[in-house]
Amino acid sequence: MAAGLWLSALFVGLIGSGTHCLGMCGGIMGALSVNIRRDGRSACPYLLAYNLGRVMSYTLAGAVLGGLGHGLVAAVPGAAVASLGDRIAALFMVALGLFLGGWWRVLGRLEAWGARGFAYIRPLGERLMPVTRLPQALALGVLWGFLPCGLVYSVLAWALASGSALKGAALMAIFGLATAPGLLTLGGTQRLALVLRKRSVRQALAALVVVYGLVSFVTPLA
Fold first, then answer.
1. Cα–Cα distance between 137 and 129 in angstroms, integer?
2. What range defines the domain where residue 163 resides?
3. What residues contact residue 11 under an 8 Å CB cut-off, 6+ apart?
4. In this structure, are residues 178 and 54 in contact, taking their beta carbons and an 8 Å threshold?
5. Checking phi first, is residue 78 left (phi over 0); if not, alpha (psi -120 to 50) or beta?
């Protein structure tokens, strides 16, 4: 896979952590840290464990979809199949940029569909609260990694298009790690989060994602 797609996952993860992830996971992170600090403990190890679990879920999902993509490519001969997968991933990138910019909410519909499945997982996460041990935080992160999220779904499309379980896993791991700093620093660098959540900044960054997706559609990166 070309380095450009790795950089895309990193770029989208960094943007998404300030423009979208805080809204999706910020409440969970805040509740987790508040409960721990009330007991006089440092929240940092627990937040790290939570995010590690979340990245583990992303990586597993990327491996599964990447493997599925490999099976599809192997089942249908011809390089055109791989090229088609690249272009579908590029279109998801465009949709993601429009979604982050607030111009088109189509990925919000995917989140609504995903919420139906997550309804079966949510009770398991609620049983782990309040978190008092690191294994609980790790398990909570694993479960919450399946939180319905248009941002994640878009990158999963790239994992599918990668046509490799290993590449799909690596792609999702890079993306997940890129989203972690914004969530880990909820209490420390809120200024950065506030800057990223400004409408003008968010839309400027979202426009870059759209442009990059259009370029990728014309010249596939994977």
1. 9
2. 3-218
3. 178, 208, 209, 212
4. no
5. left
Residue 219: phi, psi to the nearest 5?
Answer: -130, 90
Question: Could you tell me which residue, 186 or 144, shows the higher pLDDT?
Answer: 144
pTM above 0.70, yes or no: yes
Q: What does the pLDDT average to over 172-196?
A: 69
Instruction: Give the end-to-end CA distance of the chain in Å, rounded to a whole number.
Output: 5
If we measure between CA atoms, which residue out of 104, 70, 93, 101 comes closest to residue 219?
A: 93
More confident residue, 116 or 74: 116
Q: For the chain, how many structural domains are there in total?
A: 1
Q: Torsion angle of alpha carbons 211, 96, 49, 26, nearest 10°?
A: 110
Q: Can you read off the two tokens belonging to residue 167?
A: 């590449």
